[in-house]
Structure formats: structure tokens, C-alpha cells
């Protein structure tokens, strides 16, 4: 796990500035390579996980001197690839996955991407052809941003903040990206908040040669649900793929631990990891759980029971509003506004876990892959709701949901009921967008002073889904938006801020493909996330896998009303909002609504506070 940066027309000083901004991603060593006549160059910071010896250092140059690689990630099937390469006559001087990737790219170029199992972002330079290949893993676990300049030059890096150190890029604010941030609380790929910097989307590669850039997609998730298997048959097919996805994440020459919430996702991952470590005689699994004083958010009891059952070495890490002190650093780590406050929890959890392990696994992705979100249930029953008599739906919309007061204490059903009723009358794509977006098109029109409501980025993805079955379309949409733009973005940024490698077995592309082929009714037989729960029952006692879903979120509504209340009025002022280009009248109404407490608008308030901090520190 590392940080990479470089460019096709870059000076040594530019490379060093970019590399310095990526030191947290690779605290073990750093390297720099540049063509003898200047021009193309690569920089690298290393977190040594596989073959930590100097033989695995980067940038890595092929024996023939023609090819150079800088790579961030982990290729879990590198040993299988190495065996094939050795049979074809290749010889290796290290035990690193980097050298295997270099040899594979030298032989097969971009075609090798479909054979890689893992998470990665890399830059591969062919000196003879003067051709650059940038690539990003299928689901988007590892980030990669790039920018074009006058004359066709290209620069790239693992993080926006590092790329900003390269001269010649347009760093003005992209107004469409700002609108999308307000909608999603993150900026969806390919945009960033900077006009001249773009994200390479997951499952894509970029080729640059002689000032010309070409981007191609090599993989995308496909939830098409064509296989109507029986529940037992589906579990039999899934189980070995799931086990392989988890055990592959133990490929490392350093200690591997597990973030454990007590929910079914992380519990399955922990159970399979503990199983494999016992088989290898590798000692107990180290597990880490964040605890909260607010009971509705706290999962310590469930996590303890799982850890005790597995014989894990368990560590509890208390959450505190003090973590908000890290907000400026968090904003800098993303390089752009990012409004999901769970990032603060992952930041704190990663910092504490890094004292014990260099690699941590987590259950992220389980909801997207195995259909765990409550909104998926809403999407499935919306058609039935629309067939109810008009008068009954009017009663729900006009008399019942308006009187339901939202809760800031972790009880989300009033808000979800209101959002369901409000959205269910819309076309499916607009309905789903209304559930997952925050500032509505009308709000963004008023906030930004636009002439018309801006488009909904989520509805565009929904309409492009290969299957229009509601469950297929919702999961497909989340795997291309909410997952990489939100969950994976904060997982990478916050873990790598502390030099911790985060591995997510439930996002193994083989597992995603296996589940995506199953019919919707198979995926949710026995309830939402039913297939994963069936798998869990083969690993853990029933009493440990029957808990209701409880998301990993801070009690933001309570914090903003109590300990953090002074920050809201201090940071959200007419002056700071004018600097952000936002209409104060709209912001003021949101703050008043937050303080009155009838509606839970805490995430909107937080998103505005993050935007203010980004403008103040950018």
C-alpha cells in the first residue's frame, strides 16, 4: 500500500513536492525515477506489506530498462501469476507483488487487468513507445486522480492534495462538482471539486501518448439477476467464493487485524479470518471496535460476544466529539469537501488500530453486494404502494408523515417513512435519487442561485443500469456511486492517513459477480441480506447473527445539538456562506430547522460546515 504521483512533463522538484504530500501513505520508504532528459517522472512512497525488503522498492524498473512501474495496492493472486510467468521463462529478484505486476504488464499490457485479483492503482511507463498506462481496480478501492495541461501534458497522483503541487493545473472550483457535492455529500467520479483535476473511474484505464489521452472501461458490476437458484444451491455456490475472498486478504508479511462492529458483515469476515488463522497456526485474530456513550449507536456488547466466540484479541476504542478537532486534517486528506462524518470514526479507529497491526480488514460493501439497506426494501414495495387507492396515499402524504418528528437519537424510521411516502410517487430513478441525495434539486437551485434545478446524478446512473428490476437497479447504482464515491473514499483516505492498509473481502470482484448473477428473490430470501445471513449461520451461532442492522455512524444529530452546537453558529455565517457562493437565506432556514429539531437535517448542516472548512484550508 503506497502513494504514487508523476507526470509526463515534470521536474524533479515537482516530483519531490508531490511525493512529500503522500508521505503518510507510505511511511516506510520513498523513491523517485525520471527520464535522463527530464520529461516523464514517477514518485512513490511505500507502506511495506508484501516483501518489505528493499527488493520491493519503487518505482520499479524492468531488467531490460524499458518499463517503469509505480503501484499502490495489493494483488492477492500474485503468487499464481508468478508461477505462470516462471513457467514461461520469467525470473524474479524479489518476493513482491509489484515485480509480478511489472512482468505481467510488460508481457500483456492492459489485457492483464482482467486477470488481477485485488485492489490497485498504478502508473506503467513504456520508455520506448513513450506511452503511459494508468489503471484503477474494478470497484474503486484505490484512488487515482489526474489532470491535463496545455500542450497535452498529463499529471497524476493518489490524492488531490498531492496533485495540486504540480504547476499548470486549473485549480478553480468546478460549479457542477459543487452542486453534486451538495446532492451526494461527496463529488462523484469523474469530477473533483477542482476544474482541472479528474478522478479515473473504477474499472477504467487511461492511456497517454504524444499528448493524446484515451480512457476505456475494462469492467463494471452487472446486477442482472438471471439465475433463479434454490436457497441451498445458492449458498453452496457462494460459500467457497466468500471464503476465498476473505482468506486471500491474509496475503501479507505483516500482522493483519479486523474491524468488528458486531453486525453480520464484519462478523462473517472475522469468523472466516479466525478460521484461516487457526488452520495456519497463526495466533489469535486481533479485532477492533469503536464504542459510543449513546446507546442507540453502541455495538460493543455484540462485538464482544463475537470476539469471545472467535477467541479474538479484542480492543475497544471509545468515540468522542474530540475527534471533530481533526476536521481540518480530514478535509486536507480528501483534497475536496467530503460530508460523511463516518470518516472521522474511521480516522480515529485507524489511528488506534495502527498501534497493533499494519493491515485491517472490514465488512464494508456487504450492504451494497448483499442488499442490506432499508431503502432497498422501500424500492421493492414502492410498486405495491402506488397501487393503493389515491385517497389512502393522500392521507399518508398530507396528514400522517408531516406530523412525524425526526429523531436525532439513532431512530431513523420516522424520517425513512416520510422520505418513502414523498418519493414513491416519482418515477423509479427519481424516487431512488430522492432517498439517497441530501440537498434536493430545488434546494440546490436556491442555494447556488441557478436558473433551473440541476440534474440528479444518481437518477442518471439508475436509468443506465442493465436491469430495471428495482433491486438490481438500486444495487447497481450504489456500486457505481455511493460505494466508491463515499464508503471507499473515506476508507482509503482515513486509513492511509495513518499508514494502515484497509482490505475489504466483501468487495472481491469474483464475489460481486457471483451475487450479481443471482435472481433478486434469491438474494433476499429470508429477508434483506438473507443470503449473507445464511452464510453467517454456517460459521456462527444463530444468536450472534440475528441482530437488526445498525449502521456505523456517529451520533451527529446529538453532537450538533449539544457539544458541537457553538461550532454551527460560529462557522456557518452570512460571510462564510457568501464566500462559498451559497445563499444565506437558504442556509439560515436549514440552521433554524436543525435547532427546532422537527426535522433531522444534521447531515446538511455538517456538509455546509465541511465546505466552509475546505474553503478556509484549501
CATH superfamily of the largest domain: HUPs
Strand content: 5-15%
CATH secondary-structure class of the largest domain: Alpha Beta
Shape: globular
Distance between the termini: 26 Å
Overall residue-averaged pLDDT value = 93
The CATH topology of the largest domain turns out to be Rossmann fold
Helix content: 40-55%
Number of domains: 3
Number of helices: 27
Strand segment tally: 17
Going by CATH, the architecture of the largest domain would be 3-Layer(aba) Sandwich
Weakly predicted, low-confidence segments? none
Over the alpha carbons, how many angstroms does the gyration radius reach? Answer: 24 Å
Strand order of the largest sheet: 2-3-1-9-8-10
What structural category do the secondary elements indicate?
alpha+beta
What does this structure look like?
- With 618 residues, the protein is an alpha+beta fold.
- It contains 27 helices and 17 strands.
- Strand 2 and strand 3 (41-46) form a beta hairpin.
- The mean pLDDT is 93.
Amino acid at each position: 500500500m503506497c502513494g504514487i504521483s508523476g507526470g509526463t512533463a515534470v521536474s524533479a522538484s515537482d516530483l519531490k513536492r508531490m511525493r512529500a504530500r503522500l508521505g503518510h501513505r507510505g511511511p516506510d520508504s520513498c523513491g523517485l525515477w525520471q527520464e535522463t532528459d527530464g520529461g516523464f517522472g514517477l514518485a512513490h512512497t511505500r507502506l511495506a506489506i508484501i516483501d518489505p525488503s528493499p527488493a520491493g522498492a519503487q518505482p520499479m524498473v524492468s531488467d531490460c530498462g524499458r518499463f517503469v512501474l509505480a503501484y499502490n495496492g495489493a494483488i492477492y493472486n500474485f503468487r499464481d501469476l508468478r508461477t505462470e510467468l516462471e513457467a514461461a521463462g520469467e525470473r524474479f529478484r524479489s518476493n513482491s507483488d509489484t515485480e509480478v505486476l511489472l512482468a505481467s504488464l510488460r508481457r500483456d499490457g492492459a489485457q492483464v487487468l482482467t486477470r488481477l485479483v485485488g485492489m490497485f492503482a498504478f502508473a506503467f511507463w513504456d520508455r520506448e513507445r513513450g506511452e503511459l498506462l494508468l489503471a484503477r481496480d474494478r470497484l474503486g478501492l484505490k484512488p487515482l486522480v489526474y489532470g491535463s495541461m496545455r500542450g497535452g501534458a498529463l499529471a497524476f497522483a493518489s490524492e488531490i492534495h498531492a496533485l495540486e503541487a504540480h504547476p499548470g493545473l486549473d485549480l478553480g472550483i468546478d460549479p457542477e462538482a459543487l452542486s453534486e457535492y451538495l446532492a451526494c455529500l461527496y463529488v462523484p467520479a469523474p469530477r473533483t471539486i477542482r476544474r482541472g483535476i479528474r478522478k479515473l473511474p473504477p474499472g477504467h484505464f487511461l492511456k497517454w501518448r504524444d499528448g493524446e489521452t484515451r480512457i476505456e472501461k475494462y469492467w463494471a458490476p452487472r446486477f442482472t439477476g438471471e439465475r433463479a437458484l434454490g436457497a441451498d444451491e445458492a449458498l453452496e455456490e457462494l460459500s467457497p467464493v466468500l471464503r476465498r475472498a476473505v482468506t486471500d486478504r491474509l496475503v501479507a508479511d505483516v500482522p493483519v487485524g479486523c474491524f468488528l462492529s458486531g453486525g453480520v458483515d464484519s462478523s462473517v469476515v472475522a469468523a472466516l479470518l479466525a478460521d484461516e488463522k487457526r488452520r495456519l497456526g497463526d495466533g489469535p485474530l486481533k479485532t477492533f471496535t469503536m464504542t459510543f456513550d449513546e446507546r442507540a449507536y453502541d455495538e460493543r456488547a455484540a462485538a464482544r460476544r463475537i470476539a469471545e466466540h472467535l477467541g479474538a484479541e479484542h480492543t475497544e476504542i471509545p468515540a468522542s466529539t474530540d475527534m471533530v478537532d481533526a476536521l481540518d486534517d480530514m478535509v486536507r486528506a480528501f483534497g475536496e469537501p467530503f460530508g460523511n462524518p463516518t470518516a472521522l470514526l474511521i480516522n480515529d479507529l485507524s489511528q488506534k488500530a495502527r498501534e497493533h497491526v499494519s493491515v485491517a480488514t472490514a465488512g464494508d460493501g456487504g450492504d451494497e453486494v448483499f442488499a442490506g439497506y432499508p431503502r432497498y426494501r422501500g424500492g421493492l414495495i414502492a410498486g405495491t404502494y402506488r397501487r393503493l387507492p389515491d385517497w389512502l396515499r393522500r392521507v399518508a402524504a398530507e396528514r400522517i408523515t408531516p406530523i412525524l418528528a425526526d429523531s436525532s437519537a439513532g431512530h431513523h424510521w420516522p424520517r425513512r417513512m416520510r422520505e418513502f411516502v414523498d418519493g414513491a410517487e416519482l418515477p423509479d430513478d427519481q424516487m431512488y435519487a430522492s432517498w439517497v441525495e441530501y440537498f434536493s434539486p430545488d434546494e440546490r437551485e436556491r442555494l447556488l442561485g441557478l436558473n433551473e434545478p440541476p440534474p440528479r446524478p444518481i437518477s442518471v446512473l439508475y436509468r443506465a443500469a442493465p436491469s430495471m428490476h428495482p433491486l438490481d437497479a438500486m444495487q447497481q447504482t450504489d456500486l457505481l456511486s455511493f460505494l466508491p464515491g463515499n464508503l471507499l473514499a473515506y476508507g482509503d483516505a482515513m486509513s492511509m492517513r495513518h499508514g494502515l492498509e484497509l482490505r475489504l473481502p466483501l468487495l472481491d470482484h469474483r464475489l460481486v459477480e457471483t451475487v450479481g448473477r443471482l435472481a433478486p428473490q434469491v438474494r433476499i430470501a429470508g429477508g434483506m441480506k438473507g443470503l449473507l445471513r445464511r452464510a453467517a449461520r454456517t460459521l456462527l451461532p444463530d444468536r450472534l447473527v440475528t441482530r437488526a442492522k445498525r449502521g456505523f455512524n456517529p451520533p451527529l444529530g446529538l453532537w450538533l445539538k449539544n457539544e458541537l452546537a457553538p461550532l454551527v453558529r460560529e462557522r456557518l455565517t452570512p460571510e462564510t456562506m457568501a464566500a462559498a457562493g451559497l445563499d444565506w437565506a437558504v442556509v439560515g432556514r436549514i440552521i433554524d430547522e436543525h435547532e427546532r429539531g422537527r426535522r433531522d437535517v444534521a447531515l446538511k448542516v455538517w456538509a455546509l460546515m465541511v465546505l466552509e472548512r475546505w474553503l478556509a484550508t484549501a
